[in-house]
Amino acid sequence: MKIGLVCSHGGHLTEITEFSEIYRYHDFFFITYKSERTLKLQKAYLIENFAEKPFTLFLNILKILRVLMLERPRILISTGAEIAIPTFFIAKLLGIKTVYIESCARVRSPSITGLLVYRISDYFFVQWKDLLPSYGKKAKFAGGLL
Amino acid sequence: MILVITGFGYHPFDRLILAMDDIASRIDEKVVIQKGASSTNVRNAISFNWGCHDLIMKYINEARLIICHAGIGILLDCKKAGKNVIIVPRKKEFGEITGNHQLEITDTLKKRGTINIVEEIENLEQLINNNIVYEKIFIDDNKSLLLKALKDILIGLEKEH
Prior knowledge:
By secondary structure, chain A is α/β, with parallel strands linked by helices. Chain A has helices at about 10-15, 20-25, 55-70, 85-95, 110-115, and strands at about 1-5, 25-35, 45, 75-80, 95-100, 125, 140.
């Protein structure tokens, strides 16, 4: 199965790699921001950090669309942050399943990304029980990285 | 070696850096400080601002003890390396962070019975000097439940085909 991994660089990337036993025996690729660390990833589509450079957002959307149409993953898994927002909306249009895992950093208050992708995510996980009240029934707590 | 990690965010964490620079002048052990966004002059320790992830991992593996902000990236790296950790959460009142989510993390970790969390920086030196046996902050089992939930989703998808 082809799996797309969507994350910002930094802590979100560290978090998603903690789940490597889920994806490493499948055909996987990353969609992430360009950085020293992500340049070393085996199969990664790197986009400009549109949180830092908002004017790159439109081009990034086109790039994400092209990547998803080319790769046609069965499912996307994301640990955030805002890179998940356009990616999940495009995935929804293309009929790709989506799993959002709220960051371990979010204990009692939800992230903006989480709030924005909650409705369109097929599966939604929080990593702390205290965060469940911030979301609806779809949100599940099944343990976390810490 | 004591490694101090302040993370890769936009806010400096001078409260921790200044305290550790001061402590470093009194202890024999080597201290390395990753300063992040801070421009503070460090006199008694090796210091650098950013560093790539490989460099940070090299220092983590060398360190006897890691003192860090409550950043998930560094905490996960320390957990993977099996290292002793003292966590100093950033506080919004000092302009160290935009909200108090680091305190939320440490408040939750405190419920596990750990004492390795320093909210008042004056308490840091005593915790280092006491040389107590550092109990684990991290729980391994938590992760396996989430991994199973994710695996079940993939298995379900494979069956649909």
